[in-house]
Structure formats: C-alpha cells, structure tokens
Amino acid sequence: MNVWLCPVKPRSWRIIKTRGLFGVPKQQLDTFRNVKPDDLLVFHVLKPINGIVSVCRVVSQVFENYQDIWGKDRYPFRVRIEFIPNMLRDESKPIPLSTIFGKEGKQSEIKIEPYLRNVWITKISKQQYNNLQKFFDNET
Questions:
Q1: What whole-number distance in Å separates Cα of residue 22 and Cα of residue 40?
Q2: Residues 89-129 pLDDT 10s
Q3: What whole-number distance in Å separates Cα of residue 27 and Cα of residue 130?
Q4: Domain-by-domain residue ranges, the chain?
Q5: The domain 3-139 belongs to what CATH superfamily?
C-alpha cells in the first residue's frame, strides 16, 4: 500500500467529495499509473482552506473517462475512492500540511504550499502518514 498526497483546489474538492472520484490530467498519467486499489489518498485543499481534510482509500484501478465532471476533457484519468471513517476533517479546521513534514513543535516554521504548485499527486512516506494519522486519532 502506498500513500499519496493530492493537493486540490476547493472547487475540485467539492466534486471529489460528491462523486467519490479523483482525477488527473494526461501529463500526470505516468505517476498516476502507480496508484493501485487499497492505496491511500491524502487530500490537501489549497487556499483558502489550506490544509489536509481527508484520507480516502482507492477502490478501483486507474481508468480513463471523459465524462464532463470537472470541465470539458479535464482530468480524464481517474480512480474511485471511498472515505475512511474518522479520517474526514471539518474544513474549517484542516490539519496543516507542515505537520507531516515538520518536527514536533516546529510545524509553523515550515512553509510547504509554494512547493505544491503544479503538483497533482506525490508519494509520501509511511512515517509521514503515521504523523498525520495521530492528528486524526486525536479527533476521536
């Protein structure tokens, strides 16, 4: 199982939540082909939310579909996802992305978002995921 960080815009996040789908453009297909069922997608919603709001499980192989969901011919390479209970955060209280990259007590010193421009999906380590999971566990 791999864990993938997926930075998305707020409008795309609303569609992802409603449809249970995540998609990328053609130029991201080489990376996206590595996403498999049971992998986890960590959704970081960009400004104004600016934080991690959910972890979802991939429940399908990557497939190609041009149904107009995000806009004409946008993000035709897709996977179906399911939301993991207790891994959906209130969007008014997102988890700062720096928490999975920073050291305890130093999260606010790390500025991550500028590095997410033009990033659709990127793998994160198991340790980074474990750091994140602690924040979701503290919610329950």
A1: 12
A2: 999 999 988 888 765 545 444 455 555 667 889 999 999 99
A3: 30
A4: 3-139
A5: ph1033 like domains (3.10.590.10)
Q: Annotate the chain with three-state secondary structure.
A: CCEEEEEECHHHHHHHHHHCEEEECHHHHHHHCCCCCCCEEEEEECCCCCEEEEEEEECCCCEECCCCCCCCCCCCEEEEEEEEEEEECCCCCCECCHHHHCCCCCHHHCCCHHHHCCCCCEEECHHHHHHHHHHHHHHC
Q: Which residue bears the tokens 């209130």?
A: 90
pLDDT 10s digits, 19-70: 999 999 999 999 999 999 999 999 999 889 999 999 999 999 999 999 999 9
Is the pTM of the predicted complex or chain greater than 0.70?
A: yes
